[in-house]
Amino acid sequence: MKRLLVLGGGTAGTMAVSKLRRKLDPARWQITVVDHDDHHLYQPGFLFIPFGIYQPAEVVKPRGRFLPSGVELVVGEIDVVDPDACLVRLTDGRTLGYDYLIIATGTTPRPDQTPGMLGSQWRRSIFDFYTLEGAQALAKALPGFGGGAVVVHVVDMPIKCPVAPLEFTFLAEAYFRQRGMRDRVELTYATPLPGAFTKPIASAHLGSMLDERKIAVESDFMVERIDPDTKTLVSYDEREIPFDLLVTVPLNMGADYIARSGLGDELNYVPVDKHTLLSKTHGNIFAIGDANNIPTSKAGSVAHFAVDVFAGNFCEHVAGQPMTGSFDGHAQCFIESGDRKGLLIDFNYDTEPLTGSYPVPVLGPFGLLRENTANHWGKLAFRWIYWHLLLPGRPLPLPAHLSMAGKHRPPAPAQPAITQEQS
Ligand SMILES: Cc1cc2nc3c(=O)[nH]c(=O)nc-3n(C[C@H](O)[C@H](O)[C@H](O)COP(=O)(O)OP(=O)(O)OC[C@H]3O[C@@H](n4cnc5c(N)ncnc54)[C@H](O)[C@@H]3O)c2cc1C
């Protein structure tokens, strides 16, 4: 009997075992998932909780409901992996052996990594919405907020769902406007990036949307510390941003056991081949979802497209054959922009988000880098798709690889005329 051990029963781990349980003979393969609790969280829903659009009960379900029969769930905290002995130790002393290991423990916000963040203002005037508890605390605080400086802030990249802080900013702007208090709120978006997003074309579009909404952007802002007494963000280059309400995305890091096991980089992400997700150092370890270091967004959509390719590759690999699938870094994110509108971005390792229509050229109905109501409804429909189609590993009519149909590439900048001196 071969043993497949999957660390983490979140988005990527659950989708992977749903697909692999069908492909691997149950008489020859034992599949076990380890997670530290039995609550599967639909994290994209955290965005809507502060504004009362979703309730917490709509984003939490028991994990066991989504694991196929023939997959065992072990509830426990992972302490360390011993890759030479092919053993995983849990903090309660239990050990689990494996023939193949899939690391799918994601990435976690770490407010402890920024001095002052967890000080006296934490969850009083400093909030996060990347955890269920943070989103719920903000849902309680927002209705009582009477106006002042609201700063939405990202500590450093990479973070999971890099558009989520922008979405929060757009929704907050609409929320204050709808409450008739927009003139009493100064909104600032503070980012370590040079612009609104990681990729230039999308950054220009999203940046102009912030401008239109009169939201100030503080770019290249690398926070050094937060002063809870004066309620100020202080950067390494000594810029200061005062706030009355700070909504921050703390540093995101992979799980600490990855560092203890000597399997991670400086942020505890597992270095893998970006096309196969096989560990760069161990031939029987893969890392899927947010836990790896591939150069695309950390997102549920990436986990989904990557797992589609990975499941076939895994079966080839364990059969001693070369892996024939190659993941292209495909990412797809709806961006909620307020007033029941949204945008969609679709990109991969080589192609940045472009304008156009999706999935049908010209007709859409989804607009690429263009606001429309179809994108908003697509974002809301995604929760149903997640629980009912994605987690059970049911096939979706969406190709795992990026398609260029319906996308418009901007014309290449004109070549400067060659002068006699240059030629
Ligand atoms: C606010 C917000 C909005 C988002 N919006 C979108 C969106 O619109 N679209 C999109 O595609 N993605 C979105 N995402 C990102 C998406 O949720 C993640 O990228 C996705 O869940 C990653 O899946 P994963 O399996 O790698 O990690 P996770 O789903 O986080 O699963 C990791 C699992 O590992 C377990 N674990 C971790 N450490 C240990 C340990 N030491 N011991 C035992 N178990 C452990 C955790 O309990 C968890 O169940 C959003 C995320 C957030 C926070």
Structure description:
The protein is 22% helix and 26% strand. By secondary structure, it is an alpha/beta fold. Strands 5-2-1-9-20 form a five-stranded parallel beta sheet, with helices on one face. Strands 11-18-12-13-14 form a five-stranded parallel beta sheet. A three-stranded antiparallel beta sheet has the order 6-7-8. Helix 1 (11-23) runs parallel beside helix 6 (300-318). The model is unreliable at 416-423 (pLDDT under 50). Bound molecules: flavin-adenine dinucleotide (FAD). Flavin-adenine dinucleotide binds next to helix 1, strand 2, helix 6 and strand 21.
Helices and strands, with pairings:
Elements: E1 2-7, H1 11-23, E2 29-35, E3 39-41, E4 60-62, E5 71-75, E6 78-82, E7 87-90, E8 95-97, E9 100-103, E10 108-110, E11 126-127, H2 132-141, E12 148-154, H3 164-178, E13 185-190, H4 200-212, E14 216-218, E15 223-227, E16 232-235, E17 240-242, E18 245-249, E19 251-253, H5 256-260, E20 285-287, H6 300-318, E21 331-338, E22 341-347, E23 355-360, E24 364-368, H7 373-390, E25 407-408
Parallel strand pairs: 1-2, 1-9, 2-5, 9-20, 11-18, 12-13, 12-18, 13-14
Antiparallel strand pairs: 3-4, 6-7, 7-8, 10-19, 15-16, 16-17, 21-22, 23-24, 23-25
Helix pairs in contact: 1-6
The structure holds flavin-adenine dinucleotide.
Summary keywords:
423 residues; alpha/beta; five-stranded parallel β-sheet; 7 helices; 25 strands; globular; disordered C terminus; binds flavin-adenine dinucleotide
Count of individual helical segments: 7
End-to-end Cα distance, whole Å, is: 69 Å
* Class from secondary-structure proportions: alpha/beta
Q: Any ligands, ions or cofactors bound here, and which?
A: flavin-adenine dinucleotide
Q: Output the strand order for the largest sheet.
A: 5-2-1-9-20
- Rg is 22 Å
Number of strands: 25
Mean pLDDT: 94
